[in-house]
Design brief:
By secondary structure, this protein is of the alpha/beta class. The chain has 3 domains: 32 residues; 157 residues, Collagenase ColT, N-terminal domain (Glutaredoxin, 3-Layer(aba) Sandwich); 96 residues, no CATH class. The protein is 59% helix and 8% strand. A 5-stranded mixed β-sheet has the order 1-2-3-5-4. The structure holds zinc ion. Zinc ion binds next to helix 5 and helix 6.
């Protein structure tokens, strides 16, 4: 071997080391930013990522870091989430800093293996816990966008009030505002949306019982009734006091721990007539004559 060959081998070796360092640097940057920051993830989210066998794509946008197994799902959830968040902040104004939301788009197999058994608050095909949202990737893109809008409202409520909001109010807000946001997104995208509630309207429960619900009913008719009742009541309240004042109501009930009716009576001057109207509107919402 002549000196020429030696120096060529040397160049190849140096180039190899440089290439290796560049790849490692790139990997480090990805891990430090959108791709990882694994120290910011809950153990549960880490488990989900690990069970995805490494084929996750990740993208970071203004308010969210999204994870999905393919690029079209990734773009779809990211667009739906940013749209929903901007609307949620209009309905529920206040500080927007802090941890970005993390959204994991999970296929049905993974859902069955990991998430179905999760000991967390669940909305059937989605789970939200603090800044993490897990959404089952099934049905149409429009279906997934509805789930995301609902969960993004939960995320927004958590961002403003932590876990202090009563369950009926948290769920009612996600149901009412989440659906309105999904409707607005539908108009933008030119989609069809349909709501798949059971055939029969749920019983018009007395409100006191609804207010006392501290835990989510097990999936089934009871849970569906709870979702619909919560949403019907929050929608009735929003229509009466105005959507723009809804966040004052939430703050009053949550921060000042006023009872919901005391709040309406004292701050909004609700009379017996108003409470009667509210009860009737709640019933109208439940029995299917909602959404003019
Ligand atoms: Zn919910």
């Amino acid at each position: 071997m002549g000196p020429y060959l030696n120096s060529k081998r040397h160049v190849v070796a140096v180039a190899g080391i440089v290439a290796f360092l560049v790849v490692m640097l790139g990997l480090w940057i990805v891990l430090r930013t959108g791709g990882g920051a694994a120290d910011d993830l809950s153990p549960f989210a880490r488990k989900v990522l690990k069970m995805g066998r490494g084929d996750w794509l990740c993208a970071e946008s203004r308010h969210f870091i999204c994870y999905a197994s393919d690029a079209s799902h990734l773009a779809a959830i990211q667009n739906a989430a940013e749209f929903a968040y901007a609307r949620a902040v209009e309905f529920l104004p206040g500080a927007t800093g802090g941890r970005k939301g993390r959204i994991f788009s999970v296929d049905e197999e993974m859902w069955a293996r990991v998430l179905r058994k999760a000991d967390r608050r669940r909305d059937g095909l989605a789970i939200q816990s603090e800044n993490e949202i897990f959404v089952m990737q099934s049905g149409s893109t429009a279906d997934v966008a509805v789930r995301i809008a609902h969960e993004v409202v939960h995320y927004r409520v958590w961002q403003l009030w932590g876990s202090l909001v009563p369950v009926w109010l948290d769920e009612g807000l996600a149901g009412c505002l989440g659906w309105d946001i999904a409707e607005a997104y539908r108009l933008k995208m030119g989609w069809q949306l349909s709501r798949r509630w059971g055939d029969a309207p749920p019983p018009v429960s007395d409100l006191a019982k609804l207010m006392k619900t501290a835990d989510y009913p097990a999936p089934g008719p009871e849970a569906e009734a709870f979702y619909r009742q919560s949403e019907a009541l929050v929608r009735a309240i929003a229509r009466n006091i105005g959507y723009g004042k809804l966040h004052h109501f939430v703050a009053g009930v949550t921060e000042e721990t006023l009872s919901w009716d005391a709040y309406l009576r004292d701050r909004f001057g609700f009379s017996e007539y108003d409470f009667r109207w509210l009860a009737e509107e709640y019933e109208r919402n439940l029995t299917g004559k909602e959404d003019d």
